[in-house]
User: What shape does this take?
Amino acid sequence: MLRGPVYFDAVPLVLVAVLLLLTGCSGPFPQSVFHPRSDFATALDGLFWNIFWWAVAVFLVVETLLVIAIARYRARPGAPAPKPIHGHTFLEIGWTLAPVLILVFIAVPTMRTIFATAGQAPEGALRVEVIGHQWWWEYRYPTLGINAMNELHLPLGTPVQLEMTSADVIHSFWAPGLGGKRDVIQGRTNRIAFTADSTGEYWGQCAEFCGASHANMRLRVVVQTDSQFQAWVDRQRSAPVTPAKGSPEEKGQQIFRRSACIGCHTITGIANAKVGPELTHVGSRGTIAGALFPNNTEMLHHWIQNAPSLKPGALMPPQNLAGEDLDAVVAYLQSLK
Amino acid sequence: MKSWLTTTDHKRIGMLYFWTAFCFFLIGGLEALVIRAQLVKPDGGLGVSAETFNQMFTMHGTTMVFLALMPLSAAFFNFIIPLQIGARDVAFPRLNAFSYWVFLLGGLFLNFSFIAGPLFSAGRLSVAPDAGWFGYANLTSRQFSPGPNVDFWLLGLQILGIASLAAGFNFVVTILNMRAPGMRMLRLPPFTWMTLITQFLVITAFPVITVALVLLMFDRIFGTHFFVPQGGGDPILWQHLFWMFGHPEVYILILPAMGIVSEILPTFSKKPLFGYTVVVYSGVVIAFLGWSVWAHHMFSSGLGPIADSVFAGATMLIAIPTGVKIFNWIGTMWGGQLSFRPAMLFAIGFIAMFIIGGLSGVTHASAASDLQQTDTYYIVAHIHYVLFGGTMLGLFAGMYYWWPKMTGRILSETLGRWHFWLTLIGMNLAFFPMHFSGLLGMPRRIYTYSAQLGVTQFNQISTVGAFLIGVATLIFLFNLLRSLRRPADAPNNPWGGATLEWAIPSPPPVYNFTVIPTVTNRLPLWQTERHGPMAPLPEQPPKPIHVPGGSWWPMITAAGLPVMAIAALSRFLPLVFVGVAIVIVGIYRWAYEPFEM
Assistant: This one.
């Protein structure tokens, strides 16, 4: 009869089943590695499953042997003493060589993929400089002459070369749907290259622990068709919106000009400081605060009033703005499409 | 009381290590429960602040590695190794006491940071380390970590490293020089062998972290720029140094547990260890390879495809000797007569769980595949299958196995089975879902996550599992304490073990062996085809045995080290000289201490 210890391996197997079931009824998993949408991500995904099935096979063989040993060789009263076997040379050689063979099947595709995903894009790729900050992302498009914050826009089907560095501590740029992560390190430039094969908004976030708000250093990658992308580029190139005379937006602009805002932020023609993210087209973004919150009136109010309470360690101090003044600044920022 | 403070008896020091490390294990466990409680809800969790959470995972990792798993292994090194090799004590008993006191003071120093805030006008009670157990530069620089938190971490680790190094040399010399007559190297019990390999790793790996910590200390205290890019330094240098230590450290943590399992499986299968020499040599090979794989912790840092390929290949090679060990353990059980006492349950649990951790390890040995896995919860799952499912289950197995020898009392088997099953179920509930949360995009070391990631349920299951482990651990603690209230009536050899520690009373007399036995084979207490069991040792020593008396100087010498650390911490450097003076006087008096009869 099978008792007790035989259930050893049932525990993880049942768990897998339950968890797979749970996976089936949860959300769309925007940050999953299992929805590869670029050549880079697809290569890593294929490699993972290749290794995974080898691992499953080895797992089944070893755990089965273990379970058989447990079931068959339970001590029985009165049984003769077991034969004192000290080893078996042939077996030892066998179970040394078997893993060697399996590892060859894992190592060869691994090394192929390492070189295939080493981060060198072909000629003519779109170059984007990625700069990590505590705790937000800056993207510069040197060939297009534009900058973006936290939300990286890329054209569909065009090879992309990301050249990444950090303004402060080590971060790691990771948008799982588009590929693996790479650390961004001050004083170095790390590269990844990929070609996105589907439009959409991809989630990502910093993967290297980088201080108080590491958890809040999120990012988005928006992959668009060529025409959408070109429209976005044109908008980012345009001068910031000039508010109409007497409008709340104009009042907001004046408050912005005489407040601490200009000490850290850039709005072309209004302020030119580099401490915090540029705001020239902040109204065109879907998110604020490092892709942490939706870009809406309510969150902008909260954020300006007390950023560190929403994002621990955030460098932007609570602003002494309230009432109509705050409404005006928010209106102004939202107008900066 | 005085006799415990001045003791140089390896058995008493072993018990001190055990209880101290077990207390730190409970503290590290509580830190884990804070982490798991916070993550039970997305978007803010239960309200644990980012700062507190960062301290919790930093201290959880640091505590479990340096204050729980390593010293719990050290408890067995201390208590069991001299007995297994037929010695009266370790080679340097006072150095052994010194190691313990340094470990205790280093651990207290690190944990003192939880209440030291007011001393630094920090505005909060706790200034515990908060830059991760791996303390990556340049986050640890003065610019980005201005508080005392990182100082506590680096100085605490520096102190603990001294304890490990002193113990490392002590045990290498003990195992090589103090063996009973006839105890040739290939007759050493497997636990002793794995300990020897571990100690070689300690004495080669700890100097690397020592140097790295000195450089970091210079950066922080004297304004050097070893790891500061603006000053021409390189944060990647820290990663290389840390993992050159950190990867051998992984084997420092797992090899002793492998040794324990290699003792327990034969005893409870009534069969000799299958492929003894292969098990020993595969341990040696693991240790050698363990030195050539450090950069697999850095696959995302941009080392280039050639380095990535080399380190990926070297890492995969480790799977071979590891697999060989697992097959030999199953071979040991095959054809035996297995009795599933708690020690055996935990040993089998070790094999079953360690395989899972080993196989997920192969998925990130593949450098490219690792780019989607590193720094996610998938890795958290992996390390916990290896370090909890592996090392900790192995250590629990050792506790059930050797507790009668250490205390003269057998632990309750009923409670032991509860402990085992709750631990096994709890750990799988806690750690298995982490594979999923990681691959679904949840990074490590985040105090909160978006509900939209879809990982909330996985986190909730993990939290339930973690608390189940907590319950199981309390049952175990109760079992330990309950046993101490019972009579010390365990027989010499309650399990029918084959090695020398089972030839003497439980607990052993202060001199261990009435007569040092002469060893003629690998299984001295067993009847094998070629040898009968060893003749019993006389009950009383035929002639008086000299046992060295206690000494205060190891403890006093050890006390100088935290004084130096406090000097560095407070930036009041003249205090360093006080610490140095204590150490020098301590060593001088230690060296000239009269030979006590």
